[in-house]
Amino acid sequence: MAVAAARVDDLERGDLPAICAKTGEPCVGLVKDTLWVVPRWVSALAAFLVLPYYVGRMLSSRRIEVTLPIAPSRLLWIRRFVRAAWVALVLAAAGLAAAVFGAGVVGVFALIAGIASYVLIVYVGDQIWVGARPTHSRDVVVLTRVHPAFARAVAVMYDERAADDNPLALPADR
Question: Is the pTM of this model over 0.70?
Fold first, then answer.
């Protein structure tokens, strides 16, 4: 996977090359999504516990609504992950109900399996999606976990803008 610097306003408008950000194949479909721009140091907090990580993320991240070019095949993957997460939550709820109403160890096992499955599905789903890191400029973010072909196309787009002295080019200190 690669990284690509992009202007926030281009991401919000969907003004990006018509190449899937995840597969690198040509695509015309745009998908609206929310990206959390999280500094790198926040991830280190997860080593201490989940609570410090979420507090650090809440206090230091910002949310941007983006429109990304995503191929239909990748959307199917994401939809499968969402369905699997719902199944895991139902399993956990059924396990909780079974444990409370007398199934004992079987219910507790289903509860633990459901919760563990849900956490794993959410983590893997997050890792296969696009991430974002901040830069020195609030107007520019670095997209992470994108396909190298998409990263090259974004770089070419901004290089062409810079050659034309376009005000929508990336700032030099990105």
Answer: yes
